[in-house]
């Protein structure tokens, strides 16, 4: 069966420090991968999605970046964190189910920037 | 571009009450529509989906009907339970496209009183 792992689960970082959140998927090949952010009191914002190795689409210009060095690995990074980067980050992969593009989410990574 | 609008929360109901959470969308073509649920401290999971007009998605006593004429996909449940307390997200994606963006509404927090 397919599983998705995210780490770390919780992270507290000072402003200006770097960030690396990692997501890996098991049990499938060539998945479409996504990074979403859920800020406090706000909805789910699509940050990046990827249809293959090295292929990244960015949805929101900001100081975050994403990379996909391997088929089932998706990394979210920042060189210098801002206070506004605090939030709950969710990785997901998608599959077509009866013609619908269904997402399966990881458990999330909660980032607090101080 | 595509967008999803859902009713503002929080919504607080007593156990066994009838629930409606409104969701309307704007999209080109014929999107697939979804409801995802996020229980406290967890990532999101698919609740139900519909892929074409007049389809009814259902799961765990929840239902939603794809209404093309009103561009709506309202979530309903006849008798809610305390365990239904969660945040509910309406979402859409391009139909039959595995490499597509999946757009979410802002989420509606539901609290059920015993």
Q: Based on CA inertia axes, which overall geometry of chain A fits?
A: globular
Mean of pLDDT of chain B: 91
Q: How many extended strands of chain A?
A: 11
Helical content of chain B (DSSP H or I, runs of 4+) = under 10%
Secondary-structure element order of chain A, N to C: EEEEEEEEEEE
Based on secondary structure, the structural category of chain A is mainly beta
Number of distinct helices of chain B: 0
Oligomeric form: heterodimer
- What proportion of the residues of chain A is helical, as a percent range? under 10%
Please trace the helix and strand order of chain B, writing H or E for each element. EEEEEEEEEEEE
- How many beta-strand segments of chain B? 12
Uncertain segments of chain A are none
Rg for CA atoms of chain A: 14 Å
Largest sheet of chain A: 7 strands, mixed
Task: Report the radius of gyration of chain B as a whole number of Å.
Answer: 14 Å
Which segments of chain B are poorly predicted (pLDDT under 50) over 5 or more consecutive residues? none
Shape of chain B: globular
Task: Write the topology of this structure.
The complex is a heterodimer of chains A (about 110) and B (about 110).
Chain A: E1 3-7, E2 10-13, E3 19-26, E4 32-38, E5 44-52, E6 55-58, E7 64-70, E8 73-78, E9 87-97, E10 100-105, E11 109-113
Parallel strand pairs in A: 2-11
Antiparallel strand pairs in A: 1-3, 3-8, 4-5, 4-9, 5-6, 7-8, 9-10, 9-11
Chain B: E1 3-6, E2 11-14, E3 19-21, E4 23-26, E5 32-38, E6 44-50, E7 56-59, E8 62-65, E9 75-77, E10 86-93, E11 102-104, E12 108-113
Parallel strand pairs in B: 2-12
Antiparallel strand pairs in B: 1-4, 3-9, 5-6, 5-10, 7-8, 8-9, 10-11, 10-12
């Amino acid at each position: 069966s397919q599983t998705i792992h995210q780490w770390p689960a919780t992270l507290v970082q000072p402003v200006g420090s770097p960030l690396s959140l990692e997501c890996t998927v098991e049990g499938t090949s060539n998945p479409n991968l996504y990074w979403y952010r859920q800020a406090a009191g706000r909805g789910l914002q699509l940050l990046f999605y990827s249809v293959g190795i090295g292929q990244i689409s960015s949805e929101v210009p900001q100081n975050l970046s994403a990379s996909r060095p391997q088929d089932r690995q998706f990394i979210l990074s920042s060189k210098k964190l801002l206070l506004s980067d605090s939030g709950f980050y969710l990785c997901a992969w998608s599959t077509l189910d009866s013609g619908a593009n269904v997402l399966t989410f990881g458990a999330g990574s909660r980032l607090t920037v101080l | 571009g595509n967008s999803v609008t859902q009713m503002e929360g929080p919504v607080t109901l007593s156990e066994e009450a009838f629930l409606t959470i409104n969701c309307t969308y704007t999209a080109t073509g014929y999107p697939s529509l979804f409801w995802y649920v996020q229980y406290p401290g967890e990532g999101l999971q698919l609740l139900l989906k519909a892929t074409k007009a007049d389809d009814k998605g259902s799961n765990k006593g929840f239902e939603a009907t794809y209404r093309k004429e009103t561009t709506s996909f309202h979530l309903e449940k006849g008798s809610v339970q305390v365990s239904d307390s969660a945040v509910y997200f309406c979402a859409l994606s391009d139909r039959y496209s595995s490499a597509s963006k999946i757009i979410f509404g802002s989420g509606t927090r539901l609290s059920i009183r015993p």
